[in-house]
Amino acid sequence: MNVLALLDYLDEEISSASNVPLSNKCGVDREKCLDIINDIREGLPNEILEAEEINKEKNQILYDAEKESEQIVEDANDKVGLLVDQNKITQMAYEKAEEVIQNAETSAREIRLSANEYVEDILADLESYIQRNLDIVRQNRTQMRGH
User: Fold this and answer.
1) Is 59 in the same domain as 129?
2) Are 37 and 55 contained in the same domain?
3) Second label for 30, Cα 20 to 30 Å away, from 7, 60, 75, 131?
């Protein structure tokens, strides 16, 4: 059964439930409703699972970028340490190390921004897809109530 049919089935189950006297509440078959909800979860589009995977990938990209940045900085510091004992070369090494560190930080920042933009684009597409499907579900429910 597809998700829309399951939602209709759940709607029907709740709509046809017995009213509790003197209240706005009703009694439903809890097991049946929970089973329908579990079936709905199983029938959700793969895009939701893909969004979770994309989020994990984004976190991994950010983690890798941070590690790469740390390694570049560490390498730069190592290079600086090797050149400390040399007079003229020492000054040039400090300048070069600073440039490498700045480049590493800039590179890491750009990688993080790119990763965030990529994930933002994917999540925006997913949000749009889910919104369209939610609108369809709402239209179907409204049509079902109207008939």
Assistant:
1) yes
2) no
3) 131
Q: Using one digit for the tens of pLDDT, what is the confidence trace for 43-83?
A: 777 777 788 888 899 999 889 989 999 999 999 888 877 76
Q: Which two tokens stand for residue 91?
A: 């000054």
* Lowest-confidence segment of 20-24, 84-88, 103-107 by average pLDDT: 84-88
Domain range holding 8? 1-44
pLDDT confidence of residue 1: 60
Same domain, 67 and 111: yes
List alpha helices for the chain, DSSP H: 3-15, 30-43, 46-83, 87-146
Cα dihedral: 85, 88, 94, 97 (round 10): -100
d(CA 5, CA 9): 6
Residue 69: how many other CB atoms lie within 10 Å: 19
Model's pTM, two decimal places? 0.36
Q: Say if residues 40 and 3 touch (Cβ distance below 8 Å).
A: yes
